[in-house]
Structure formats: structure tokens, C-alpha cells
Write a structure and sequence with these properties.
Shape: globular
Strand content: 5-15%
Radius of gyration: 21 Å
Largest sheet: 4 strands, mixed
Number of strands: 4
Order of helices and strands: HHHHEHHEEEHH
Helix content: 25-40%
């Protein structure tokens, strides 16, 4: 994990390029939050103020948006964030027992981080994998139909370095960070639109007057 101050530097350096992809600066808010969290795994008040200045909204609006989404964190977490779903499908398939077992295996309660800062355990709402219950995520990578023994093997493999396809928490894969104008979606702000959207032109409303 890098020093938290690196997040502000990263946002100042790469933020303008990300904002340029959107019709309005505040539309880039989620992307900037991901960029900031990528640096050290959580969002500081300082970096949220930096983002607010860049997109022209208040720090409270930044925090309000970020706190709506489960994937953003506001305090240090372990290198591996384990989210165990306990919504209805997973509950019916034994996720409560799985969560209890995970707490015993890791030696922490849900919401806590192990002493070695390796794992943070969290109980979460539906993660949209109901047919694969009970389900959990490790740094947002899915693990389906997880048994207690499978959980123990996964933790053991991570501790021993045998799992390399799961990046540490806060790491965001950079895909197409630079998008040439010719490959863009040609989105413009509504007040700047001079013609109907392409999708609307292709699908005219036959009942329109």
C-alpha cells in the first residue's frame, strides 16, 4: 500500500484526463473515486475534497455519493476484503453459518481486520449471484457455492501466496485509460445537443405525431 497522500497526487495528475471523457465534470465522480481508492484501499477526507474541487461540487456531495456504494471504504482495510453475502438466497443456503465460520477462522468479527492486516471481513447485502449461493467476494472477485472447507482452503492459499489472480484491495485494473476521440461515444451535454441521439434515429417512434 502506498502512502495515502499519493491519492491526491494521482487525482491531480490523471483527474483532468478522466474528466475530459464526460460531458460534465461531475459525471466523472465515480471514476475519480475509484482512481483515488486504487492508491491505498480507502478514501480519505483530503482526497474527497480534492475530487470535489476538480468536478465543482461540495465535499459533502462527494462523500454522499461514495457512501451510497458498498465498494468504497473510508478507513484502512486489509489487503484482502472478504464480503460474505447474507441476503435471502445465501441465507437459505447457509451463509450465516459460513459467516460464523469465517469469523472463527480469521479470529475477527464482521467489520474487523486481522492483526496482520491481511484480511478484513464484512457482511454484505446481495451481490447479485443468487443462483450460486452461498456466495462471497474477495476484493470483488466472486467465489460461488462456498463451503466452510473451501473458505479455509482459500484463506490458506492466500496466506501462502498461492493465489495470484486476486489483486490487493484498492487495486483497480486500468483498461483503456486513454480513449482516442475516434473511439469515444460522442456524448455531449443535453444543452449542447443539436440532433437526436443515434439510437433514437435508428428506432423512430411509429406512434409519434
Amino acid at each position: 500500500m502506498r502512502d495515502p497522500g499519493s491519492a491526491e497526487v494521482e487525482v491531480r495528475t490523471h483527474g483532468p484526463g478522466i474528466i475530459a471523457r464526460y460531458p460534465r465534470p461531475k459525471s466523472a465522480l465515480i471514476a475519480l473515486l475509484h482512481l483515488a481508492q486504487q492508491q491505498h484501499g480507502y478514501l480519505t477526507d483530503t482526497v474527497m475534497r480534492e475530487i470535489a474541487d476538480l468536478v465543482g461540487i461540495t465535499p459533502a456531495e462527494v462523500k454522499g455519493t461514495a457512501s451510497f456504494y458498498e465498494m468504497f471504504r473510508f478507513a484502512p482495510v486489509g489487503r484482502y476484503l472478504i464480503n460474505i453475502c447474507t441476503s435471502i438466497s445465501c441465507h437459505l443456503m447457509g451463509s450465516d453459518d459460513l459467516l460464523l465460520h469465517a469469523q472463527q477462522t480469521l479470529g475477527v468479527r464482521a467489520g474487523e481486520t486481522t492483526q496482520d492486516a491481511m484480511f478484513t471481513l464484512a457482511e454484505v447485502e446481495c451481490v447479485a449471484a443468487c443462483t450460486e449461493a452461498p456466495c462471497l467476494q474477495i476484493n470483488y472477485r466472486y467465489c460461488h457455492k462456498v463451503t466452510e472447507s473451501a473458505f479455509d482452503r482459500l484463506v490458506s492459499d492466500i496466506r501462502s501466496g498461492q493465489v495470484d489472480e486476486i489483486p490487493e484491495h484498492g487495486t483497480l485494473g486500468r483498461v483503456r485509460q486513454v480513449i482516442p476521440a475516434s473511439a469515444g461515444s460522442m456524448i455531449v451535454a443535453p444543452e449542447e445537443a443539436r440532433e437526436a441521439p443515434v439510437w433514437l434515429a435508428r428506432n423512430p417512434d411509429e406512434n409519434a405525431p
